[in-house]
User: Fold this.
Amino acid sequence: MEFLSPSTFEDALSAKSSAPEAVPIMGGTDVMVELNFDRRRPGALLDLSRVRELAQWGPEGPYLRLGAGVPYTEIVERLAARAPALARAARTVASPQIRNRGSVGGNLGTASPAGDCHPPLVAQGALVELASVRGVRRVPARAFYLGPGRSAREDDELVSAVLLPAPAGPQQFSKIGTRNAMVIAVASFSLVLDAATRTAGTGIGSAGPRPLRSPQAEEFLAAEFDWQGGAEPSQAAARHFAELVAAAAEPIGDVRGSASYRRHALSVMARRAWYWCAEDYRKGAR
Amino acid sequence: MRVEFTVNGEDVAAEDVWPGESLLYVLRERLGLPGSKNACEQGECGSCTVYLDGVTVCACMVAAGQARGRRVGTVEGLTGGEGAVGESRLSTVQEAFVETGAVQCGFCTPGLVVQADSLIARTVGAGGPAPGDAEIREALAGNLCRCTGYEKILEAVRTAAEREQAHGTGGAR
Assistant:
């Protein structure tokens, strides 16, 4: 096994281009588990932890450009106002030790349907930036995920950043698991409202072969939401929204939960997310 | 491959490191530092918690090559210099663990001690208030104690935080 350790982004791209089978490693929270358990023996590891550009974030036009390697701890501590839903999701990732290492880029590279970042990225219509020696392209998060562990990323590409639209309303995220820490999602849900365009975005995690959304639930909420005052929804409206979200899921039953439990959990999280967003809206999140 | 970095302030070098090897393996098997424990090898248990460039990480999830040129701090480094009777002095956190009986089988203790040390450094050590129970629990959420001795561990961290605050010296890192 080779250990490639580029210190510039350019070198990282040429390394990935000449060795497309090299496995990128950033925080190691996925890759090292596979190596430790002998599940994977790649020909090469491509260490990205020395590439400074990947650990940077800042404004870019209407977006916040978040480098793929920014650790969750930094997102939680410094980006809660600029990326509310993602910061909420980052706060639920594993433990402090893991949050010090894990990153959104790693989550996207692994593309597990249970990854905590995915529902917020899908709900807010974020862009995933993919780079190779051939150039840079930006893929909507909603089109990035293809299936468990599969994404739109080509073999010679690296996830370089995500681009997050500026928040224009309340953003929520919640996750169901067996503990309040150190837990992989049984199901997760994100709701993002845009007060300027009066639209809503949903993101459904760990309840399908890839992160999903419910356009029907989004349209329903956008039409029903009290954009004037942020009043609580009627019980019937909240219930219908919850049903639409649950119906959009494509869950399987596995050791973490049955398919019907996942749908039920999603409906509960969806309903709560609406109430929480309404409350945030009344408090001025718009 | 050869990997050089610093451990507890000293330059070290490990030879013949396999590229897929973890920092934990290098510390324990190549550098003779068995304080960091090897249990789950998947980041679940926190027994291998060490400092990497000042922040705590699970050493089992750091590829050895990623530590090249970086600063690693292990539980062995928390102990202060020689005491009056020729024994090495325990850190505030270590002392509090001993006094409150926060150690049962002892396997999770090194990881907990490093993680607690970091919490205290980031709170009272940075001039802030002593961490409350919720903050302590959150900070230690990634460290499992299979003897389930969490109450004593909480007590130890509270005690250590109070003492650090009284002495105004801050955490070890």
Summary: The mean pLDDT of chain B is 94. The first strand of chain B starts at residue 3 and ends at 7. The first helix of chain B runs from residue 23 to 30.
